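Thread: Modeling a multi-component assembly for a lab meeting

Hi all, long-time lurker, first post. My supervisor asked me to bring a structural picture of a complex we are working on to next week's group meeting, and I have zero experience with this. I have the sequence lines for every component (1331 residues in total). Could someone generate the structure of the whole assembly? Inputs are pasted exactly as I received them:
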Amino acid sequence: MNAAVGSAEKVVNDTTVIASPAIDLAFVDQTVAVHGGGPEAVIPILQAIQTKYRYLPDAALQRVCELTEITPSAITGVSTFYTQFRHRPMGRHAIQVCRGTACHVKGADLIEEAIALHLGLKPGEDTDQQGQFTIEPVACLGCCTLAPVVQIDDATYGRLTPQSVPSTIRGFARRGSEVKSTRRDLRKRDFSTSGSAVGEIRVGLGSCCVAQGSGQVFDKVQEVVTSIGAAAEVKRVGCVGMCHQTPLVETIRGDGTSRLYCHVQPEQVEEIVLQNYQPTGIVSRMRTSWSKMVAELYGRENGAESSVEAVSPKEGPVCEFLGPQKRIATESCGDIDPLDLSEYQRHEGFVALKRCLDELSSDEVISEIERSGLRGRGGAGFPSAIKWRTVRGANAETKYVICNGDEGDPGAFMDRMILESFPYRVIEGMAIAAVAVGAHQGYFYIRAEYPLAVERIRHAIAECEAAGLLGDRILGSDYSLKFSVKEGAGAFICGEETALIHSIEGGRGTPRLRPPFPAESGLWEKPTLINNVETLSLVPWILRHGGDEFAKFGTETSKGTKVFALAGKIQRGGLIEVPMGVTIRQIVNQIGGGVANGRRFKAVQIGGPSGGCVPASLADTPVDYEALSSVGAIMGSGGMVVLDDTDCMVDIARYFLRFTQDQSCGKCTYCRIGTKRMLEILERICGGEAKKGDLDLLEDLCQSVSSGSLCGLGKTAPNPVLSTLRYFREEYEAHLAGHCPAGKCKNLIAYHITDACIGCTLCAQHCPVDAIPAVPYAKHVVDVDLCTACDTCRVVCPENAVEIVRRTNA
Amino acid sequence: MPKISIDERTIEVPAGTTVLDAAEQLGIEIPTLCFLKGYLPSTSCQVCLVRDRASGKLVPSCATKIVDGMQIDSETAEVHAARRTALELLLSDHVGDCLAPCFFACPAHMDIPLMLRQLGNHDLHDAIETIKRDIAIPAVLGRICTKPCEKGCRRSSADDPVSVCELKRYAADADLASEHAFAPECAADSGKRVAIIGAGPTGLSAAYYLRQRGHACRLIEATVQLGGRLRWETDSETLPRGTLDAEIAQIVGLDVQVETATPVDSREAFEKLVDSHDVVLIASGADAVKMSDEWSVDGSRRGIEINRETYQTKRENVFAAGCAVRGKCLFVRSAADGKEVAGCIDQFLSGQKVTAPPKPFASRLGRVATEEMKQFLAGAASVPVQTPNTSDDYSDEQVAEQSDRCLSCGCVAHGDCRLENYAARYGADPNRFGTRQGVYEVLGRGGNVLFEPGKCIKCELCIQIASQSQDALGLSFVGRGFDVRVSVPFDGSYDEGMGDLAERCIAACPTGALYFDRKAE
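Re: Modeling a multi-component assembly
Sure thing. I ran the full set together rather than chain by chain. Output:
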């Protein structure tokens, strides 16, 4: 369960064969030379050591202590706090299993079990006997629309099923070492042709698009364009937001007309290119292939339908999806190359910063922010202008700005998408903030699970420095501003600002009592402005268009737009940006196209582990800080997971409690022990072992933990329980009576094969634990004692003869 | 200077003062576990919560700086409930017995582990003092007791229980035989007079403890000899009369007025006693109930009716205990009753509210697993149990060795543990969140310092203190969340972790998680 701690304590099966690499202490010396020897260097040093050895050998850590100011106590405390760090060797490949909300409701537990079964892991083990694979549960990979997701090394696999697990792992192993990185950032990207009227082919390459095969599509587009000499530039663009349609290819012809292709497979690329661009400079070899292609196409036009068809953004699902959205934080989504600074500048990039430096006083900038009504997008919704003004007014020579990119809510990935797709926008927003408050140093704190975001921000900072947008005397002013990146190391709590500060300072990510607030005493006890990624990404637009223009969107107290990660049991999942004030129903039905698979819309989980479940009956609640909290949810960072009637609300509450309990830093009693006790009660309820009085005790605990915990994590941890108790109390009571109405809680259900069984033996063949004896042409029977409720039989049955029934004697 | 109020009491304190300090200046005691003056508040235990009226929020007083005009609630039901819950949560994760199982098994609640430790150190004099704090007639009981303590001994589930009763007898015999036998100090004369009807185990014991509190005792026995059922329910082989007489003599020697052959067999005789004494204690055994009408007290088939909390009959100055109220009971129960009723009578005589002897707060381990038993056994002598034959008593070495078989189940910090004391004060229920799940373990065996992670409340004090040492390896939190624990970097020992500051670390530990191994001294 608790990977960070478990790894330090549990002993792997002795027979596990894992070659410990010889410890090359010279590497440690070099690392220390690179990162310095101050206490704040501990996390980067540990990350470097872990990258080198794939775990943290004691000898290396001791060497670090000899060479630096880092004490044995500090290095031990820090290296065991963050989930990223391992203290024992791991297998050659890491299988990260996402435990995010969307993955959870789509059966991540079953995936994890299937992987353990495939690798032959015994309880407590995480690495297979051959030392090939190590399984590592992670809080959220941020690919929620592809749920359930696993990442093997740096390859992401989405929409897994327990049945597809073995082939996925085998497939990965077969790819072997010749496979190239799925990150396509640093490769040569300009691919212009000699033609005059140059079109553009845009391929969305967000992390989750890549997981859906966009990388291969991108490669194929480049290959085809080169080989036929099409007059088109191939352009990588960031996340388009339509995760349900990926891989996505958009073609812009020389005349400006555009077409959008969804679910593109590499073998369709050639046809897409040919539909839109005339080949030029054709060599004879190409000519042959071209004629062949034309013939094929011709054949199709005469009879069969074309294999690829463009979808129109003007009508149909894409229109419905995009229609109600308003893009500010995600402006130019799908249009611009994330790393092309000049393109960002052509889209008015850094105009706002220039104005802030040349024309506006700090007060004027902050007033503009105040007029916009901007509130923090990270969760709590604190008015940004107040924070800015406090830091501005703080009497200190040194001040800092921090961009909080430690997006950790399972089910939310907008910050990753913004960092990956619009790095310059976030940099500009943060630069404006820095100038406004008088800070000359800024840090991006980005979670370790987002390597692409880290890479792109690093790259963008370097580009900005080269262009004089960052560094000494930026944009010709006398203002100097330096930004750098600090990577998180796997701790949700570091999204809490005081914990984040401790982490940057090189400590364990434990929060402290506020006040004093970071705006008064933050990083290294200096006044520090901390804003979330999305908040900062809105700033340039506000400065360009004016605060009043921003405030035109939204409600009385909630202005502008909000980005949501729409996922779960929905037709069209994706990353959306909507004006505040739209209702949950509009989002679910119109943008999301309603609940998938014809199920009944039950609730929406908003705000992740600090949020709550809004029942379908309250779906007309608008997206508004106050309105959402009045129904027991919170705006949060913007995770929106749609639930249907097969989702058990007690299980959902337990899921979030597991998360917060696992992520608790362990500092204060209420959170450390209180969340554990709450979880135990929820486990009992889901397991059908609840005692009389457990519900009352649970409610009491919710109240106590929320009022007694030190920081926001503990204070809000009970919210998922409270909101489900508020709206779905009867489900809790049903569990107390031994019944899970949604048929989800394993201890309360049984698989039963009905008379519709035709004896095809498919279920028996697929059952991973041999709980169904194969009896051809006869009705099959599930051995309830052996059954692990993996759901495989129900999925493979061609006759729908497997049903989930109430378990009679547990 | 900023002015704040705590529980409606106002005080002016300099800016930067914490609420905790301000409260202290007002004489309001706020409980703290993780806070120690001179160290950074870790705001971990959350037992020092107070309520800030402005925000309505509970805040840790140790780290909350005062703000002018602040209004704080400390002694309210809400705040107390929050403190209690914090304590209950800590206790739900607490692995250890405050008091050893033998404490609860012994009706007299004698501090058996302490006695054994003293005997283990060849400290006979301290041992007899420990024994006599709860048992007035140890040489007698050492021969006739049915030994409920040994049945409760944790070691009985591993091999055999510690021979508590034999060792107690040994100590008592040795004391009787010594030139300077132990004699408790008696307080100055209180001016109060107690008549005790019956000189059996209950009456004798009551006299022993009442005299120590300065009350005059008149022991009235119907027969010609003192001892009551100790005499007629035992044979002289099991209980040599010399021993019995010697121990009775020790009690009487505390200036107890004795009247033998004086049955109180009439209403008049009883009322005369009542009139001439401040309290009358009925300790005349099972037959006492037959006199209930004569003595104007209620009786039932079992015995004389009393308030079970206070030992008072319906007449507030008439008390009853032992077989007189129980009909039938163990000798040790009678002796225990004598001690307890003496306490109640003392409360009555000094004008206090008469209450039941306080039930100590106790976190309890309950059943231990085999692996846990190994942890216990590792700290005890591994010799098998031995009982002396009648002619040849234990040798000094055997006494020490047999005493060292004790598993020291109770907590070293008992009585001195802040968690225990606050739990008692706030009425915390250690089982509110279920029975314990943590595993009992003792780390650091072989070194000077032992650490019981199950008792650690993660206050961070030892970590802070150890970090000040120049030569120590330091201590560190390992892991996070519920599983976080205090450990020594790079597999060092706890001695290495704390170095020269071990004593300070141990003194700072708010519970009994950290201590010097007594055996290592």
